[in-house]
Amino acid sequence: MILDARSVCSGATGRNGGHLRPDLYGHIPKYINRGGVRAGAEIAEFEIAHFKALKELILREKIDCDLTLTRTCDVWNNQNAADDAKAVYDRLRLNPELSYMEDVHFTIGKDAETISGVKGAKACSTYTTTTLSPYKLITSLLASTLATSSANLQTNTPVISIKQSDHLYHLVETSRGILRARKVVHANNAYVSGLLPEYAKKIIPCKGICCHITVPKDATASPIGYSYIVRTEDGILDYLIPRPDGSIIVGGASATFRSHKDQWYNNVDDGKLIEATMKERYYENFMQRTFRGWENSDAKIESIWTGVMGYSFDSNPHIGLIPQKSNQFIIAGFNGHGMPVIWLAAKGLAEMLITGKSFEEVRVPMSLPRLFKTTQDRIDRAQNGPEGGDILN
């Protein structure tokens, strides 16, 4: 039984930009500092493994979801930030345990603008990535699963409470009645603390903003050869995904609203745009001011929306058996970075449910990253730590 409080993919999945981009060095130093080199490498390798896993799935199931294998281009327009990024790259590149760094090509200096196509670029790096439509992928998978009668999907059915009736069953109270279930999986990400208050300080709902930019058919614009992460001179970060039809998805801009905490932090209202970003009209003429060769493109915003992500106190998702709860499991807290994490994490969780294996025992085919395991210690650290943890500090 799958219960969805709203309609299928009406939340973050349907609002996702579609960037299946592994983080090969951005947060890896932090993970290495906290868990050691192997722990950091596990996360990068796990994310990279999603290329093959999802490609095989999509081809096997013949899913039309705009799958595109490409390279991503990280761009730094601030010289100090560029120098810092180069230092991180050099340090990781020399570590023999981080062999995946061989795919990363880093350029600093005058050639960065030419390679990236971004005006004022001081440095850039490229590596393999994938883009796709999460909405098309998930709705297709749901349709094929439901066609086999192996699952029962009930939409517009919010869960009100979960109570253990005896040692075998949980009573799942919904707006439409009560169900009995032996095992329960909490896969509601940003909203997980609604039923699990112990995660209220661990996984915080945080709003983001995204837009769809189109270009007139007769316009002149340079080709966009990469997906992007662009960091401006004043520290605003945006991600960009070119679509097969020539349009562009752009999201991010958190620096424009970060100081307006009430508009994004611990906020679940995805029906209202983020006022600070809209007031700045940040995405108007974004392509024209950011990319070389787009000055006369007449690119314009076709639509703009917001979505709610589940951000984790320590930057890592929570996966596995919930401490002090019998046969209740969690898979949540993906920090707006679920694309290269969720599929194999969910596969590992499914193996736990079916076989009774522990977090450490499952293989997908590699082990789940150790820093992803939900534990009482992680919950306690968030409960007793500074507000927001990595999110605000």
Describe the protein in words.
The protein has 393 residues and is of the alpha+beta class. Among the domains are: 158-202 and 314-391, 3-Layer(bba) Sandwich (FAD/NAD(P)-binding domain); 203-312, D-Amino Acid Oxidase, Chain A, domain 2 (2-Layer Sandwich). It is 27% helix and 25% strand. The protein has 10 helices and 17 strands. It has helices spanning 12-15, 28-35, 37-61, 79-93, 111-116, 134-147, 275-280, 286-290, 342-355, 376-384, and strands spanning 2-3, 19-20, 68-76, 105-108, 123-131, 153-154, 159-164, 170-174, 177-181, 184-186, 203-214, 227-231, 237-242, 248-252, 300-312, 318-321, 328-332. Strands 2, 3, 4, 5, 11, 12, 13, 14 and 15 form a 9-stranded mixed β-sheet that branches. The model has no long low-confidence stretch (mean pLDDT 97). This is FAD dependent oxidoreductase domain-containing protein.
Topology:
Blueprint: E1 2-3, H1 12-15, E2 19-20, H2 28-35, H3 37-61, E3 68-76, H4 79-93, E4 105-108, H5 111-116, E5 123-131, H6 134-147, E6 153-154, E7 159-164, E8 170-174, E9 177-181, E10 184-186, E11 203-214, E12 227-231, E13 237-242, E14 248-252, H7 275-280, H8 286-290, E15 300-312, E16 318-321, E17 328-332, H9 342-355, H10 376-384
Parallel strand pairs: 1-6, 3-12, 10-17
Antiparallel strand pairs: 2-5, 3-5, 4-5, 7-8, 8-9, 11-14, 11-15, 12-13, 13-14, 16-17
